[in-house]
Amino acid sequence: MDNLPNCPKCNSEYTYEDGSLLICPECAHEWSAGLESQNSEDNKIVKDANGNILSDGDSVTIVKDLKVKGASSALKKGTKVKNIRLVDGDHNIDCKIDGFGAMSLKSEFVKKI
To answer: Do 103 and 65 share a domain, yes or no?
Structure first.
């Protein structure tokens, strides 16, 4: 019997080969035999409104007026945001906006400077 790697998702030892794929019968996860170390779920790419790839520490500009729940004013188009941090979730940018405070933004409403 071949020495197949454990499932990268659930760590099951009952993986089997099906052609060029390895398959876990417990969680139904499939992956290529040569890519066990690269998990595609960990390597998410975040893009701005124009399709540019964003990374931690980038500066961005807001592309449309955004209403903010619980705030008396909206974030205006053209507001510059420095030193963003990418996170998981629907609002995938954490940042601190001068004069407004800590905020979570969606990447589709910003463009890279």
So the answer is: yes
